[in-house]
């Protein structure tokens, strides 16, 4: 039965009308995956040499065991964003005269066939053969590698349950934030060393099979947790409510003051909350608000006569990340209902202006959320204010202008990771004005006078853009109107 269901899913994919269109993309993704896995293998082969360089004279096995917990914390994070859920085909299978348990078992088993599940083995296997086997023998190396592999596979089953249960809730975001704090934050702030707390488990795995057995039991428990949850929730009505998110129908009251454009901005906000890909971008915006912690307190970026030029880019990134990510696919978000706006009087103008309002509103929230960075110095607040003004006054128009170059359709219900629907050459060109635009204004004044005059020039440029907002936004509105039929035709193409 398992092979029959697997064969049906394979035939469904091959016979799909979009198979040929996505074949090249899938081939490129496979090549990219193989390249990344080759990097993992290379890192595993060089791990012994790296440890000899950076930790000469230390016990490399004990040192690696103390850092394994950080590898698993990182694995938890990248599995959260990359690992796909196996329930996409449930709706097409539940009507068959087959027990739900068999269907779920097939989907879970198929999900286990993933490159993510061999990363841990590829990373530590060369080191175990080079170092661990020499000191503890082949049995010790085998038990050590098995413990690490079982821990990684436990995360696989746990993540399938966790994402399905908490992906769209504040609990999920809280857990991810807690993982970040417990991982990097605890050691950086000197609270406690999480690696030393878990190190004895992997040390004991070198000489005893007990950790292997314990991890195997933990993996089975995580599988059963995942299996029972999927079986108990595999109903059509549950699938139809899968995208039901709290506050999904909540509007931003401020937008209602701007007429039809404000109503469409509120509608756009509701669509962001309802759809998976846009929710991912919104969630990433919250994570990137922590971007400044990498730079602002780093001695490598501090100078005696002012502040580092890189802080300008960080400020642009923090205060404008949503505008940059979401705005690069400006009209692609509305590819499925673009004709609705096309057939309404003033619909296109209101749609574009509503998106402007949304970008400005979320950027303002990002700026306010970044105010606590003043803890590192008042000049960081000035940097964020200057870059925020530049973002909403100038950069937003440039991003939208480039995003309107041959926009492509996309499916909103698909995830954001490794999903290139709607992405074209214009999305890559957007990086250029984001990187260079602020510096074209800031650097001349900073070199001629000082850093604060450079910030003032950046702020004045942004304010002038805000004052001329109506005329600048009209350029992009006219561009959409002049190409509206060509855009509509491209959106009607089947994904």
UniProtKB/TrEMBL annotation:
Superkingdom classification of source: Bacteria
One Pfam family matching this protein: DUF5687
Transmembrane segments: 21-41, 61-82, 103-129, 141-162, 169-190, 210-231, 280-297, 309-333, 354-375, 381-405, 417-440, 452-469
Database matches in InterPro entries: DUF5687
Keywords per UniProt: Membrane, Transmembrane, Transmembrane helix
Name of this protein: ABC transporter permease
